[in-house]
Amino acid sequence: MNNRVAVMDLGTNTFHLLIAEHHPQKLFTEIRHEYVGVKLGEGGINEGTIKPDAYRRGVDTLINFGRLIKEHGVTQIKAIATSAMRSASNGPQFMAEVDERAGIRIETISGDREATYIYEGVKASGCIGSRNSLIVDIGGGSVEFILGDDRHIHYKQSFEIGAARLMALFNKTDPISAENINDLHQYLNDKLSPLFAVLRDHTINNLIGSSGAFETFAELIERSKGNDFDLKQTPVYHFEWEDLKNVIKNIVRANHDERAAMKGIIPVRVDMIVVASLLTHYLMNKLKVNGVIMSAYSLKEGVIAELFGLRKL
Question: Per residue in 39-78, is it b (16+ CB within 10 Å) or e — as a string?
């Protein structure tokens, strides 16, 4: 019996297509993984609209995804849209056009459900232990925080403070100025006050960053040491504090061209990695956790767990 599935994570910054088959010893076998820096939120993320160029890039990418899905004999398809699509006034029009032209029906999910999928994906990587971890998923439009252990979620919340939104608000100079960094910190103090109120009553062992910027941090660190880094071989990565602080410092101090020249930063992250780095450093200082871990598994792996009947979400 063919149990090949296609999962699409249609984020504010990047569109992912993961085609996979069930594997009895692990969550899945990857058949194909495509990701495209669509930048759906570019220019319109804080205005609640998908701008024409981003709209075209998104539709074209999904037409290509639809072709790949047909080529690979997929039996189940799930396309998940998150923050940018949730908040865009022309999101329904975009989804209708994709359904008509690519044969892909997009499901827009709430921030709460997004957080649940992320938890299940990270859990499948095996990096959540019996003590509390705080999972942080820095997207382009939103950031999800999930507090939990390997048995339960104790708290989850999605905040509309994704990297595309923060970049539009605070990245006014290149490199970013000390004044803008201070303004960003004050903004985060205000926006994340509900999170910190909850965390006062809990001890956190680890901060787990799911995919995105944390993959970039890990790759930059390993490349600086002369090592190859393959996410397929290293879906979980444990950071050394000094390594992570140093790579963040180098990113924040660099200008666009210097960041673009860093081997390990993919083009779509060259600019947004700055505010993502500042948010990560802010959380490290604020929460004083024992360690920081990267999980390459996130939302799409959580969706796969649901499709294979391994989790009921």
Answer: bbbbebbeeebbbeebbebbbebbeebbeebeeeebeebb
Do residue 10 and residue 142 come from a single domain?
no
Pair 86, 122 in one domain: no
How far is residue 128's CA from residue 146's CA, in Å, rounded to a whole number?
11
pLDDT tens for residues 138-190?
Answer: 999 999 999 999 999 999 999 999 999 999 999 999 999 999 999 999 999 99
Same domain, 87 and 180: no
Sign of the alpha-carbon torsion through 288, 294, 300, 303: negative
pLDDT, tens digit, for every residue of 61-94?
Answer: 999 999 999 999 999 999 999 888 989 999 999 9
pLDDT recorded at residue 26: 79
User: What is d(CA 207, CA 205) in angstroms, rounded to the nearest whole number?
Assistant: 7
For 171, the domain range is: 112-295
Asked if 106 contacts 85 with a C-beta cutoff of 8 angstroms, the reply is yes
159 with 291, same domain: the answer is yes
Q: Give the list of residues 6+ apart from residue 311 with CB closer than 8 angstroms, or none.
A: 120, 302, 305
Residues 6+ apart with CB under 8 A from 286: 196
Residue type, 8: M
**143 and 86 together in one domain:** no
Whether 153 contacts 121, CB under 8 Å: no
